[in-house]
Amino acid sequence: MIAKGGHKLQKAADSGNPDCVKTNDLTPRNIYADRKNMTMQDLARMLPSFAPAYVDHEVLDFTNIKGAYDFKLGWTGKGLAESKT
C-alpha cells in the first residue's frame, strides 16, 4: 500500500534490464538487496525468492505504481535478530 503522502521511490537511473544484487554486511545478520530498474510487479515476483524465511507465499502488487525504480531493501536474517553474536 502507498503511504498517505505518496511514495518516495527514486525513478530508475537507466532503462536497462532489471537487476538485483544481494549482499551481506560484515555479519550474516544484515542482508541487503540493491534493486535497479525494477517495477513493483518485478519486486512482488522476486520477494519470495530473496527472503524465503519471511515470505513463503505469493506476493501480489496492488500499489498501482507505474514505472521502474532503483532502491535498496534491507532486512535481518530470520532467527538472527535475537542472537548476541
Summarize the helix and strand pattern as letters. EEEHE
Report the C-alpha radius of gyration, rounded.
14 Å
The oligomeric state is single chain
Proportion of helical residues: 10-25%
What does this entry look like structurally?
- By secondary structure, this protein is of the alpha+beta class.
- The chain contains one helix and four strands; from the N terminus they run βββαβ.
- It has one helix at residues 40-50, and strands at residues 10-11, 19-24, 30-38, 69-76.
- It is globular.
- The mean pLDDT is 78.
Could you outline the blueprint of secondary structure elements for this entry?
Layout: E1 10-11, E2 19-24, E3 30-38, H1 40-50, E4 69-76
Considering the chains and any ligands shown, give keywords for the structure.
85 residues, alpha+beta, 4-stranded antiparallel β-sheet, 4 strands, 13% helix
